[in-house]
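User: Sequence recovery, please. Input:
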């Protein structure tokens, strides 16, 4: 078996200048060495794989170097640097707090601090994953960390700064490490490819860098996997197949179909993605990222936000020119809603397909919104003139419930030969000429009264049905349809009569009155049968009509005494008294 060394170890930086993406940390440490302002305790915090432990080791090697260079880097040739490179330095102690987190381990460390360095100026203690120390271990470490010997330097490293107690934080110089940007990772991978004589597509290296999510160690691990898969030539197609990454071409094709409103092209592309084994939620997130990149390309000031290759950036710019801003914003909103509701959907494929179909018709919906929906025109009143256009209805027409005061006409009404005949009341405005109001820009109450008089004169007198017999017949017909027995009995017991063109219903109780009022369909039916749309109902209460004597209150019965109970027993059976006398018994007293 060959002595293969992974790239993360083989190409680990040995100088501050070789650290990738953390220039703010390396420059600060070099300036501290130059000005001789080196603190006695440091805290390196940040995400995984960004160089915290690497910088700690470089600092430990540099401060003990016997021949520091002019740019304050380790010489790598002196005995101290050689011992460090061979992992044989007695001045550097590394402790993994994940497995050495108790008070006893910290006490052992404190005992080692007492001994001066055998070679060099400083004794460096590197504690990795320091947030894993217990509360008691932190407390035991406080005094030594605050006032260590002049030759002792502590370098703490952690990925979870918030778990460290404030008393430890206040005793350290804190350095926050950043996630490494995609261009920096790509440049570092290109240098490794050049050293290892590996041919790699730049787009393939961009995919590896994006998959690493800001961690250089993860990027180097993926790079080693790609080398094992592809050999000395790393291609874009090989990377996306091995890493199970969706190709950019799918998203360009789908968005192109959306811009041309080609539903079949969009759905077929989505089906092809599913047949390749990708989950719908991964696809919808990738589509949202693609729309976001297109939105970024709309402004040259935000182009630097795209962490992709130059050739791919041009392709994004070309498609962004064809996509409107409203399309991109609406598409992002739909993609976000689809992602939020994805877990609750039972038919997940249909859920995503419905969102895609909505995105296809975004431009059409936006156009309709811009044009505006025309307001429905008011219904024209039919007239004999072909070119008639209805004028706007006056405001007073919108208030049909308002009562219009009308002057009573002075001329007498028509006399009818039969007493059963009646004339329509003057306040009935159902025959009012609506077209005349529509065509009149201004009107007065006198004009309205004149129109009512004219309409009343031309009406045919309808036969009146306001008789007690017709009222009783219509009332009982309605009562027969009532389902509630109590309401039906109440309506039957009502005393009905017609007085002054009014229906007078006399009942015995207030409860019966409320039951009649609750029958909302009663009076409309009576008015229809008696042919009077304005026939009022007057309900009167007469206690004598009630079958229940409301004034009398039931008297409470007193409980019977023992004597009364005994007398009732004797009245029912005289032998009870003989039985009492024979045995000389006495009734209980109250």
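Assistant: Recovered sequence (590 residues):
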């Amino acid at each position: 078996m060959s002595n293969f060394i992974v790239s993360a170890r083989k190409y680990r930086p040995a100088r501050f200048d070789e650290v990738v993406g953390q220039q703010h940390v390396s420059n600060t440490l070099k300036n501290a060495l130059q000005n001789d302002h080196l603190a006695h305790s440091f805290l390196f915090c940040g995400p995984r794989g960004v160089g915290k432990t690497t910088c700690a080791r470089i600092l430990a090697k540099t401060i003990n170097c016997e021949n520091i260079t002019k740019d304050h880097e380790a010489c790598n040739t002196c005995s101290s640097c050689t011992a460090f490179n061979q992992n044989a330095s007695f001045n550097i102690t590394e402790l993994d707090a994940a497995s050495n987190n108790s008070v006893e381990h910290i006490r052992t460390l404190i005992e080692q601090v007492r001994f001066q360095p055998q070679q060099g100026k400083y004794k460096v203690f590197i504690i990795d994953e320091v947030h894993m120390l217990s509360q008691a271990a932190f407390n035991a470490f406080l005094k030594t960390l605050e006032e260590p010997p002049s030759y002792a330097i502590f370098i703490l490293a952690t990925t979870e700064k918030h778990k460290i107690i404030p008393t430890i934080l206040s005793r350290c110089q804190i350095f926050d490490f950043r996630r490494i940007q995609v261009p920096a990772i790509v440049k570092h991978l290109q240098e490794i490819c050049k050293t290892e004589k590996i041919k790699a597509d730049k787009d393939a290296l961009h995919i590896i860098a994006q998959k690493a999510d800001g961690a250089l160690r993860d990027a180097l691990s993926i790079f080693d996997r790609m080398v094992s898969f592809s050999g000395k030539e790393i291609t874009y197609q090989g990377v996306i197949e091995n890493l199970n990454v969706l190709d950019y071409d799918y998203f360009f094709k789908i968005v192109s179909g959306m811009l041309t409103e080609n539903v079949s092209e969009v759905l077929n592309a989505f089906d092809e993605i599913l047949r390749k084994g990708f989950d719908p939620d991964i696809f919808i997130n990738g589509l949202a990222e693609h729309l976001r990149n297109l939105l970024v390309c709309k402004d040259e000031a935000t182009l630097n936000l795209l962490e992709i290759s130059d050739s791919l950036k041009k392709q994004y710019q070309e498609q962004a020119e064809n996509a409107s801003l409203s399309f991109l914003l609406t598409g992002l909103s739909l993609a976000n809603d689809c992602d939020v509701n994805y877990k609750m959907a039972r038919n997940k494929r249909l859920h995503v397909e419905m969102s895609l179909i909505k995105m296809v018709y975004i431009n059409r919906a936006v156009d309709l919104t811009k044009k505006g929906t025309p307001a429905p025109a008011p219904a024209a009143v039919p007239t004999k003139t072909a070119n008639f256009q209805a004028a706007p209805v006056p405001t007073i027409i919108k208030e049909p419930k308002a009562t219009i005061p009308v002057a009573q006409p002075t001329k007498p009404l028509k006399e009818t030969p039969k007493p059963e005949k009646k004339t329509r009341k003057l306040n009935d405005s159902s025959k009012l000429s609506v077209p005349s109001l529509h065509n009149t820009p201004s009107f007065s109450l006198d004009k309205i009264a004149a129109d009512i008089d004219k309409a009343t004169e031309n009406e045919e007198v309808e036969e009146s049905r306001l008789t007690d017999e017709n009222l009783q017949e219509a009332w009982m017909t309605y009562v027969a349809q009532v389902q509630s027995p109590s309401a039906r009995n109440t309506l039957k017991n009502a005393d009905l009569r017609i007085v002054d063109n009014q229906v007078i219903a006399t009942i015995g109780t207030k409860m019966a009155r409320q039951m009649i009022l609750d029958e909302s369909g009663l009076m409309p039916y009576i008015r229809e049968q008696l042919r009077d749309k304005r026939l009022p109902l007057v309900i009167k209460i007469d206690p004598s009509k009630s079958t229940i004597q409301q004034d009398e209150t039931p008297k409470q019965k007193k409980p019977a005494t023992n004597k009364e109970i005994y007398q009732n027993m004797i009245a029912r059976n005289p032998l009870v008294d003989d039985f009492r006398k024979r045995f000389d018994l006495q009734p209980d007293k109250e």
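Residues 248-371 form a domain with the Zinc Finger, Delta Prime; domain 3 fold (CATH 1.20.272.10).
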